[in-house]
Model the fold of this input.
Amino acid sequence: MQLQAIPFHGTTISAAQDGDTIRVALRPACDAMGIQLEAQYKRLGRTPWATMSMMDMTGADRKTYEMVTIDRRTFTMWLATIDTTRLKSDRARNLVETFQREAADALDNYFHNGGAINPNATEHQMRALMFQTQAQMELCQAAKGLIHPDHLEAKARIILARGLGEHATLDPNRAPLYTKDYLKEKGLSTKNLRSISPTFGKRLKAAYIEKHGIEPEKRPMNLTNSQVKHVNAYTEADRPLMDAVWEILNPTPHLTVVA
Done:
């Protein structure tokens, strides 16, 4: 099979068409993302959903190489399950996250742009879901610079996982944490929540600026009346800061022991 080099953000995805199946060469994909082939090969071998094959591939140099390949379904699942927090290199982490958001679409568009849809009902439903997922991912891509990166990444992971019928793997420290949700965790009544929210928000913003030297970014939040309000963007990594502000506003009473 003839390998095709699909351009992608300064690197390439090496893949080939095998009948109705797209096969991705695993080593070039690992090299492009800066991760070790051996570790990924072993990890894929332990999963029930991975399909790997040894195939003869002809490269751009016209030479034939025996390569480990994975099909498109495995490729998409593999991308979604790579934990980028374990990658030490910033370049590798950023590239893998980019791959997670866009590579499956790039691969599909390259081979199937303008292709016919299988008339089988189940296949039609699968493709409809794929197109819906692609549209949602494109919206996430268009929102870069407008929405906090952590919030955007969480949204993208959830969309991709939903399209695969899986649960999203999110970095807990980068998951969005709204001040409203934090205060709800304290068991406040609606009246007390409305009363304390403005003061808590101002104190938290001041504490964030004091700690980081910049104001928190903004992110849109859907309100119950269908309106959208832009609020300060915090994540689970900011929970200790919220705890500190909460403690100032609601100090824990100390018992005095009388001898």
Notes: The first strand starts at residue 4 and ends at 8. Residues 113-122 have pLDDT under 50 and may be disordered. Residues 176-249 form one domain. The beta strands are 4-8, 11-18, 21-25, 52-58, 64-71, 218-222, 228-232.
